[in-house]
Structures are given as structure tokens and as C-alpha cells.
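Lab notebook, design round three. We kept the backbone fixed and only want residue identities now. Task for the bench partner: fill in a sequence for the structure below.
Input C-alpha cells:
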């Protein structure tokens, strides 16, 4: 036990980081094919059912504000263990929910706990490696991590169609319980002991210090807007697939796997070439891919087949795989001693933006694609502008 609590300047097992980082995205994605069934079973509108995703994202964003700073003070390991316990409690509330309010409460609790792996897996890598190597390792971890969101909609679709949407939450509960045990036995502490700069500042002072850095703000906003395109698709596509294209839940999950394939490809390229090519060049290439993907979405506008949206999204998620690891490494490298707080703030901004966008698309979605495509295009353009801000002020680029 003492050995696991002690600091070690070595990366924990990569397979463990993959597992802990995958729980949050799985909890988010696995419910997507169940949206229509939730509407029918609990008697809610599409906008209310969409809160199952939106509130999960919002609680994930809020918790990341605190998780990073807490891990800077108390260590990565105890914060991670607490997060998984919270996620398990949230899953149980969702599985037993008899009305929409209880289900949404459970999703809030789930999101609070599920964010721990998303945030701390990146911080742990940055604890051990420098900037370029961190981008490479983060790329490999997230490449493998996308197996969970790739399988999530497929599993959720089949559970919804052939059993019940409640089985989705029993599945996430069991998975989180297994990973909690693995973290307890295999995760050692990576935060360096006695780091005055990271321990003394509270959340407010850390946030102010980081936000005053234009490079950090630029990288964090690039992450938020680039991933915003993806989250808008997650929020708007189920309605279009179901109501306009008459796609069954099980098939919808299969189309969503194209998103994960694109993201995995981008992360593989990041992991393979970040050290040799450089993070900013990879981000530039990624933003070009997103521009191509958005152009194809508009080109195929009006074609009522899921592939007309899923194939262009392959390029956009490829772009995310190129941009996000490098932008994350850049944001965490601006003030290395505040890497936990930086990860939390950047993650909160990313997921906070996602929750706002999915809320908006859930209520403005109509029988068409134009509003979804306009919002995605705006996010793409803003990601390019914020990347220019980061690049201009980053002395380490």
C-alpha cells in the first residue's frame, strides 16, 4: 500500500491509463442511441431527453475545474479513486430511475465522477514526460482510448433495441467497479512531492495566472472549438438519423463508429509524428482536415443517408485526433507546475462548451440540417483563429 502511495517518476501501466480515460467518453456516448426510447419511456420531449447528454457534459466541465487543482494538492491517485466511486453511484441512480428528474440527477453525478479519467490521465503523462513526448504519448493513449466511444453507441444501440436502456447504466456501473479495483492496486502516485508553486495557489489564483497567459487561453479555446464540432454532431445527428433518415438504433451506433475511427487515425498520427514533426504543424494539418470535412458536409447537404454526414465527420474527427493531443500538451506546458489546474481548466472549458452547444442544438434542431451545419462551421472557423493566438504567444513552439 505504501509503495502505491509513494511518488514514482515513471508512467503507470499504459493499459490502465487507457481504461481510466475511456470511462468518461463511454458514459457520454453509450446513451446516444437510446435518446428516442428515453423520450417514449419517460414521456419527455426531444429537448428534455437531450439533457441526458447535456447535463452529463456540464457536470463533467464543472468537476474538471476542481479535479486538476485537487490533484495538484492531494495527488493524482486519491482523486482518481474518489472519482470512480462517484461515477458508480451515478450509474446506479440512472439504472434505477423511474422519472426524468431522477435520471438527469444520476447523469449529473455520473459526469462529476467520469471526468476524473479524462483530466488526470493527461496530467499523469505530463508529470512524467516533456512537451513533445507528452503529445506523442497522449496521442497513443487517446488512440486506444477511442475504442470505448467506438463501442459505446454500438453497445448502447443493441442494449436499447434488444433489452432496455436501463441495461446501459448497469453496464457502466460494472465496468467502473472493475476499473476502480485496478486503479487501487496498480496506480502509483506521479505528482512530485513538495511543489510549492502548485500547492500554494488555490483554484482562483491558478486560474487567473493561467488565463492571463495568451498561449494557454489560445490552446484551451482551440480545444473547445475544435471538439465543439464533434459534440454538435453528437447532439444533432441522432435526431436527423432517426426522424429524417429512419435509422434504427443499432445501425445508428454503427455509423457513429466512423467518428471513433477518424479520431483513432488522428491520434495514431499524433503519437507517431509529434516528436519529429512538432505539435503546431500537426495542429495546422488538423485544421485543414476540419475545413475539408465541413466543406463536404455542405456539399452533401440534403442527401438523406447517414453516410452523407458520417463520412465528412470522419475528416472532422481525424482533425480532432491531430489537434487535441498537441493543443492539450501545449496548454499543460505553459505553466508545468500548474499542469493539474491547467488540465482541469482546459477540460472544463472544452466540456462546458460542449454542454452549451448540445443544449442549443437540442432546442433549435428542426427538420433539416442547416442549423447544425452552421454551428459546426462557426466552431471550425473559431478554432483556426484561437490557434493563431496560441501560436503567436507560445514561446515554446
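Proposed sequence:
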Amino acid at each position: 500500500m505504501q509503495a502505491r502511495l509513494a511518488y514514482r517518476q515513471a508512467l503507470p501501466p499504459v493499459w490502465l491509463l487507457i481504461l481510466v480515460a475511456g470511462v468518461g467518453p463511454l458514459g457520454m456516448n453509450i446513451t446516444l442511441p437510446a435518446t428516442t426510447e428515453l423520450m417514449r419511456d419517460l414521456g419527455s420531449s426531444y429537448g428534455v431527453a437531450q439533457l441526458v447528454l447535456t447535463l452529463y457534459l456540464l457536470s463533467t466541465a464543472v468537476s474538471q475545474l476542481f479535479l486538476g487543482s485537487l490533484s495538484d494538492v492531494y495527488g493524482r491517485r486519491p482523486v482518481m479513486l474518489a472519482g470512480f466511486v462517484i461515477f458508480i453511484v451515478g450509474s446506479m441512480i440512472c439504472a434505477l430511475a423511474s422519472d426524468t428528474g431522477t435520471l438527469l440527477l444520476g447523469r449529473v453525478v455520473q459526469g462529476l465522477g467520469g471526468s476524473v479519467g479524462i483530466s488526470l490521465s493527461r496530467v499523469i503523462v505530463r508529470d512524467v514526460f516533456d512537451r513533445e513526448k507528452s503529445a506523442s504519448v497522449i496521442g497513443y493513449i487517446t488512440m486506444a482510448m477511442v475504442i470505448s466511444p467506438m463501442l459505446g453507441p454500438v453497445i448502447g444501440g443493441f442494449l436499447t433495441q434488444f433489452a432496455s436502456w436501463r441495461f446501459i447504466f448497469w453496464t457502466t456501473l460494472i465496468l467502473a467497479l472493475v476499473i476502480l479495483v485496478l486503479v487501487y492496486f496498480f496506480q502509483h502516485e506521479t505528482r512530485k512531492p513538495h511543489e510549492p508553486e502548485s500547492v500554494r495557489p488555490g483554484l482562483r489564483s491558478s486560474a487567473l495566472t493561467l488565463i492571463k497567459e495568451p498561449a494557454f487561453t489560445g490552446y484551451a479555446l482551440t480545444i473547445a472549438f475544435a471538439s465543439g464540432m464533434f459534440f454538435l454532431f453528437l447532439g444533432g445527428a441522432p435526431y436527423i438519423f432517426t426522424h429524417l433518415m429512419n435509422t434504427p438504433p443499432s445501425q445508428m451506433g454503427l455509423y457513429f463508429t466512423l467518428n471513433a475511427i477518424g479520431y483513432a487515425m488522428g491520434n495514431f498520427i499524433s503519437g507517431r509524428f509529434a516528436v519529429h514533426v512538432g505539435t503546431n504543424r500537426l495542429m495546422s494539418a488538423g485544421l485543414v482536415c476540419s475545413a475539408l470535412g465541413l466543406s463536404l458536409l455542405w456539399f452533401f447537404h440534403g442527401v438523406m443517408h447517414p453516410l452523407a454526414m458520417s463520412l465528412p465527420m470522419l475528416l472532422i474527427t481525424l482533425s480532432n485526433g491531430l489537434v487535441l493531443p498537441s493543443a492539450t500538451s501545449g496548454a499543460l506546458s505553459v505553466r508545468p507546475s500548474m499542469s493539474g489546474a491547467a488540465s482541469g481548466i482546459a477540460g472544463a472549458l472544452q466540456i462546458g462548451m460542449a454542454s452549451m452547444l448540445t443544449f442549443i442544438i437540442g432546442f433549435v434542431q428542426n427538420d433539416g440540417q442547416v442549423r447544425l451545419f452552421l454551428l459546426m462551421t462557426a466552431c471550425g472557423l473559431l478554432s483556426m483563429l484561437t490557434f493563431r493566438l496560441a501560436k503567436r504567444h507560445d514561446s515554446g513552439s
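Keep this in mind before ordering anything: The chain has one domain: 7-191+202-393.
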